[in-house]
Amino acid sequence: MTSPLPDKDSMMASVARCFRRYKRSATRREKAVELMWLHVTKLMATWLAEANVTRLIRRETTGRGEVDHILLGLWKIRHTTSGETRTYRLDLASGRWRRDRCLDRWPELKLLPVTAEGVLAFTWESLIGDAFDEVFRQASKALRLPTFEYGYLNGELVRRWERRDLSKVCLILANDQSLEQQIRTDVRYPMEVDACESCDRWWDEQGAFDVEGLEVEPRGPEHCHECAENESTVMKRLATVNAQFGDIRALNLGEGRSYAQLKTLGGYRVKALTTGLWREALDRRSISLTSRIVGTRACLYLTSVLRVQANLDAVERIATERPQWLPALSRIHPRQWDRPDLFSRKLWVRRGESEVPIDRRAFGSDRMLCSLGSPSSFRFLNDSSQVGVAMILLGWAKLSEHFGSARGHIDEWITFLQALAPSADRRPAARMLAIRAGLILMQYCLARCDASLALDKLKQPAVMRLGRAWVAERMTVWQDQGYRELMRSKSRGEASLQQASDWCLSQNWRYPDHNMHWTAIERHSHTWHEQVQAEARRRREEQQRLDQGREALPKDLAWASPVDTIQTDRFVATPLTDSEALRVEGDVMHHCVSVYDESCHYGRYLVFSIVPTAAGAEKGDRATLGVHLGAGGFQLNQLYSYCNQPVSRDVRAFADHVLAALNQSLREKAA
To answer: Where do the structural domains in the chain lie, given as residue ranges?
Structure first.
């Protein structure tokens, strides 16, 4: 399958003439991008017809007995006769299948978890949108102009594509005439909705509203200048859409079916795609190893499973020899997985050199990976369990988000974790609890302190004493009451550590001292929280007494929320946007959320009140959600019910939904 490319030289000549004709930079840039857009969409129309992206999955068998599973005509999973799995991506310019080990441009198909209602995480529209994105990416790359002369126009073209409306693309794909009706409805003809002032005056003059049965000829654009201008606006918008996507609409990729028919068929095809992947394309051993790499509670995507399945021998060797390092594979590029020295000290530790292979861009799958500065940090990682390494990498990623790179900070982070781990206790559980305590304290410092000072706060002796006391208390619970009680009280124990962190911060990191055990720390923390709540109530009552009879209580601090109220069938989350709202929430829920008003005012923090909407909801479903804003977006910081009690699983799932909505609003604002 090969398609002749449009003449790039003629397109460059047209862009050059456009630049000579239009003197203003904004106008000529817009006209030049329009010329490039027409060429790219024409090439997309040809390639979309050849690839047949409407067919989600098809199975083919080659003459050598190899089985191919082709997704949307653009991506292929091949099972060889030897049991090996290979992944390919179609190069539309040459018509050949190219080996693809990275899988960066594959569609994001979330395989697990599936919702309780059995609804899949992806839809037919999202898959078709991924196919359109890939075809546009290859078409724009094939027609890319030289960067030294018109390089910025390529970026303008990409931004124009990213601003497109996916629903319109699906309507274009279906060649549905309702696209025209949708645009007309958006503009709302005045003569249809009776909103044209000129037509209203004319009808009033004719007495149509006073005399029943009066027959008056209806007015239209030919009689009213306002209606004519409105129709002109509609026709211009229709002409713009037809000009931009005319070649794609002319293909009739939907085989004459309407958009509603295609959407209905697409639902069955998505289920067939999922069934085909689980039954034939994916291997159970690869799925199990992928879960160990990304975490048993994390979302499982098709690309992650295929990366493991294509490198199954290397991953199984690592799982046998160095199982604790499996979570690190999520940060290492798959082309490096078969290295025999992948987790050797000489590869990870700098010995006077400025750079080792770990620091090279081609080694990691993202920029969150960097080398270690001391052998002791590597030994701590190497001696940790698989879950411990995963939690260390989580803290590693948070440092990278706040500082741009964890290099220079990762050794301080691991040194802090070593200080929390009991030196005399060599049990893996003690180290696991130390890592968990360090992660909680680091998240707390990043949320409450300036990012540049967060690591300095962790070095404070009081913070280390606080973490060590909490680890010792958790180990005592395990020894005296058993592992079941340790896990049952996990949420309550972590909540008490965060509350003690509030008290420690209020004391300017002077307490706890050397003589305080965890019982004394909890007692001091509880007393301090009660004093804060009593002081907040006293201030509020005093303010009410002074302002009695006035208009309203003044608000000390105020801020804005990027999203409004978020509601589902079971819960509603309301953003708290002033100090008074935080004080009321603290009084109702009996916790000290009011101390976060300054962080909220400066844009580092945000608080939501979660209230159940069901009539028979439990008391524990009422909760307060606190999120902090970092370099990577909003992140969950605290989620508690009354008196800082743990919340139910349903509330936590709704909090994740609120967090996703916040990050989506950030992405839309950035676009």
So the answer is: 8-172+258-280, 176-211+227-251, 329-529, 566-670
